[in-house]
Write a structure and sequence with these properties.
Blueprint lengths: L3 E8 H7 L13 H6 L6 E10 L6 H14 L5 E5 L1 E8 L6 E8 L1 H14 L5 E5 L6 H9 L3 E6 L6 H4 L5 E4 L4 H5 L6 E3 L6 E3 L2 H16 L1
Parallel strand pairs: 1-2, 1-6, 2-3, 6-7, 7-8
Antiparallel strand pairs: 4-5, 9-10
Helix pairs in contact: 4-5
Length: 220
């Protein structure tokens, strides 16, 4: 019997912010393919994890940490990185008129929708898993379903969308219920890249988050 083909589509911005909670920062250094392999049933095969993100602007340390995570995960051929872009956005306080400049990731929902529909039409997957709690993903989910794909939505830890949860015919899973699978999917502290031989080491800031959480548990 042929296994059902599964492709995971990760809204990287939403997923990252789901892990920003202090209790979840220890999982920044994550083997992303390994994590989603743990959600596969016996009659399913994970074909790819398509991770949609963008390079941070104006923060070299953050961009470097992100690059190391991506390089570590690209060692697995099932990890497919699709990069978008950030655009400058000005926010104005309605009460005082104070203005701040920030950056917003754009086009992830469109890129995910395009990839899902294309994969469905090419017969590359039977099941699509969308990892996001952003209601902007609703059109992407609807398009994938119209293309004949069964869709699951995984809410990242500490994230929820009532609009997505109420969609008919869409199965929703809250990833924070499966913390053990995150624990089992942490990358080694050091990774040697196959092609270049370069040694990647977990960023010190992320290592500190793992250590502080461990100390907290011991004290309890």
């Amino acid at each position: 019997m042929n296994k059902q083909k599964v492709i995971v589509y990760v809204d990287g911005f939403n997923f990252y912010y789901g892990l920003k909670n202090p209790a979840w920062k220890r999982y920044y250094w994550l083997d992303i393919v390994k994590l989603f392999e743990k959600f596969m049933l016996k009659n399913q095969e994970l074909m790819a994890v398509k991770y949609f993100s963008a390079r941070p602007i104006g923060n070299e340390d953050k961009a470097h940490r992100q690059s190391m995570l991506f390089d570590a995960n690209k060692e697995n051929p099932k990890f497919k990185l699709i990069l978008g872009k950030y655009i400058r956005k000005r926010i104005v306080c309605k009460k005082c008129g104070y203005k701040i400049n920030t950056y917003e990731e754009k086009e992830s929902d469109v890129r995910i929708a395009t990839q899902m529909v294309n994969d469905a039409k090419n017969g590359d997957c039977d099941i699509a898993i969308v990892v996001s709690a952003d209601s902007d993903m609703i059109p992407a989910v609807e398009l994938a379903r119209s293309a004949g794909v069964r869709v699951y939505v995984f809410f990242p830890p500490n994230h929820h969308s009532e609009a997505i949860a109420k969609m008919s015919g869409v199965n929703v899973i809250r990833m924070q219920w499966y913390e053990t699978r995150f624990k089992q999917s942490i990358l080694p502290d050091e990774i040697v890249l196959k092609k270049s031989g370069y040694r990647l080491t977990i960023p010190e800031k992320w290592k500190s988050s793992q250590t502080s959480r461990l100390t907290f548990h011991i004290l309890l």
